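retry 2 of 3: previous attempt timed out while embedding zinc ion. Reduced batch size to 1 and resubmitted. Inputs unchanged:
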Amino acid sequence: MKCQRCDKPATFHITELTGGKPQELHLCEQHARAYLTESEQEQPGGQSLAGALAQQLAVGQTAEELARLDQQACPICGITFFEFRKEGRLGCPHDYVCFQKELEPLILNIHGELQHVGKRPQRSPANTDRQTDLIRLRREMKEAITGEDYERASKLRDEIRQIEQSS
Amino acid sequence: MNVDFTSLARTSGEWLRGAGPEADIVMSSRIRLARNLADFPFISRANPGDRTEIERVLRERIVAIGDLGPLSFVDVNKLVALDRQFLVERQLISREHSEGDGPRGVVIAENEQISLMINEEDHLRIQVIQSGLNLQNAWETINRVDDLVEKQITYAFNEHLGYLTACPTNVGTGMRVSVMLHLPALVITRQIDKLFRSLQKISLAVRGLYGEGSQAMGDFYQISNQITLGRSEADLVKQVGDVIPTIIDYERKAREFLVRESHENLHDRVSRAYGILRTAQTISSEETMHLLSSVRMGVNLGLIHDLEIPTVNKLFIYTQPAHLQKITGGELDTADRNIERARYLRRLLNKEERGGDGVNQN
Ligand SMILES: [Zn+2]
Ligand SMILES: [Zn+2]
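retry 2 succeeded.
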């Protein structure tokens, strides 16, 4: 892939989340530095999201490594890391667990912290597995319906009902 | 429990009251919390069936709370564009929520101070908005509402990262604390950019009235926190609250400077603005906002005697396209809206002048 601002190969792949819509940028090293310096001047204190993702994604710098990282998918909702980078929105609560390694530098860069210190819900998700099971089963049921495998879909529906009723 | 738009168009929300501390400069204080159900995918990966189910679960359980006073549920997905725009102008839903698609709605409570958006970017966005500088009060109210909802619902929450949200920019407390300020003197004296830069240094965000572009409509600016993780809710309220007195002071000094150094120019600007608003035959929304800003400052500085701040606050909202069409009854094109807007302004401002019942009377 070529740099968006010149003909050199793009080694930095940045997802800018701070604007209205997530924006993908593919830049060579020189243009990436210029871009990150610009946005850091706009947002002093190192709050640039672009910076976080670029630093983290630039580690490998090869197209294969990036492709591998991007192909990682959440087993619960099916979102890939590539789709998250593209849309700027996560697919389900479990993504914070399954993409933990990729998300931590990003979260640290946005908030400067990784540990919540505020309010806690009175009812915490007592059985996390059951919650994520529900999300996964609903997705599988949707896939079964799309694939016109109605027998499987109805089995999945029964499973979902069972979990819902026991919670 | 459906909202009657005709009656809503005749009343005004609490936050337009023009009361509360520092109401000459602080229009409103607002806090919102982003929350998600633990056992559903986030909105971007939720199919229409999931979204219908999320809406049903949240609507039914919120309505069952009972401690929130009379509640209205609005099915935003079924509304025509004009009604959706009306709710945006009223600050009861976000522009994103209005322009989104699929099953989504809003529960409105207590004098329009509390609204709960369902299926916005997150499953639930709770908002509390109050007149003047009232952050502590807004926080106590929203915390109570959140506690009540939490009794009914299992939120997506993680020991380390707190409340889990669709975008990592909201994770942790999920809390955005915002104060809407009217800063005309800082705009006239060209000090506003300097203020922005110093606020960004302490990681506070600044946006125009409806978050569009950089040129704020009517010199209204919204200051809010950007960080949501690693600080307690009370700390975030304090972080935003602590800078407001400095900004208020800065705006007051700029006003004093204008009164002292160019009184004639300032008085002329205010009087002309008032004159145009009372006599124009056709006027755009932008020009109205711009002129009302001068008039609002003029009232606060005692240069205009026959007008009250709540009236001016209300005019900012009621002269916007959707409100105007609701009052005058029916959809109008831009040209007709500009004529109706001018007629509405003449009627209200000239009535007010004669001491009659202006827009304050609902
Ligand atoms: Zn380049
Ligand atoms: Zn997921």
